Amino acid sequence: MFCDHCGRELYPSAVVCPGCGCATPRAAAERGVANVSPDDKGGLLWWLLGAILASTFVPIILFVVWKDQYPKRGKAVLIGYVVGLVAIPLLIVVAYIAMMLVIIFVAYMSSGGASMGAMSESMWMIRALVVL
User: Fold this and answer.
1) Domain count of the chain?
2) 14 and 46 part of one domain
3) Alpha-carbon distance values, 105 to 88, 124, 125 (Å)
4) Which of 12, 80, 98, 125 has a Cα at 20 to 30 A from 71?
5) Average per-residue pLDDT in the chain?
6) What pLDDT is recorded for position 121?
7) Which residue range is the domain that position 21 belongs to?
8) 31/60 same-domain check
9) Same domain membership, residue 107 and residue 66
10) What is the CB neighbour count within 10 angstroms for residue 24?
11) What pLDDT score was predicted for residue 125?
């Protein structure tokens, strides 16, 4: 019997390949799982890909396809997807609040910064944005 990944000869009772560390077909059959690739590293780039593609179903498809052979990579994409689903709306809300604060500051400074009564003339901009 030979290793599927590196081609090294294996003992009949071997559970993992001594050359590359991959599970042998015998071990995979005993555990009932597919052979996991040795180059499955997961990592930040796969997590970032999931976050970037959070508005699509691509990360879910990648997780389903990779869950047996590349479990770390699939998990990283799925985690990035979930974080992206939470982070993107949160960033939109934070950007909206920051924009409102800048408009209030500009309206206050354009009124001379002296009194709040003078500022009320330029408050129509703020009221229009709050309605949105």
Assistant:
1) 2
2) no
3) 26, 14, 12
4) 12
5) 76
6) 55
7) 1-38
8) no
9) yes
10) 21
11) 60
